[in-house]
Amino acid sequence: MKGFAIGVLGSLSLLTAMMPLLAQPSPAPNRGGPLTITSDTQEGNARSGIFIARGNVRMVYPSRQVDAVSEMAEYDTRRRIVTLRGNVFVQQENNTLRADVVVYTIDTGKIEALPVPQKQVQSVYMIKENPEKPAPQISPTPAPGATIP
User: Are 87 and 114 in contact (CB under 8 A)?
Assistant: First the structure.
C-alpha cells in the first residue's frame, strides 16, 4: 500500500517507498535524503496522503540540518508540507525558532511560524561576521553637509 503506515510507540522514517518524497528530483544539490519523525503514536491515510504523529514528536531532516520537537506533526505527502503544532522548537545549525505552529515546506525550505494567541514567536539567528567586509564604522560626528533633526 503506497503512502499508508500506522506506527505506535515508534518512528516513521520517510525514507521508504511509502512516501513519494525522494521519488521527485530535489530542487537543489545536497537536498533530499531521509526525513524522520519519531513520536508516541502515528497514523496515516493512503487516500489523503496525510500522516499524523502525536506525543513527544521529533522531526530530523539531516540534509537541511533541521531538528525539531513538538506535541504533534502532520505530514502532507502530496503538498510536501510538514506542520508542527504545540510547543514547537526548531533548530537549524545554530539558529533556533520557538512557536505554537510551524509550517515547513520541504521543496522550498520555507518556514512559517505562528504564535499562541496574545504571545509572540521567537527566533534566534547566529550571525557570522564576513572577514572580507569589515563592519561599518560609526562616526560620532555627522558628515559635512548632514543635517541633524
Answer: no
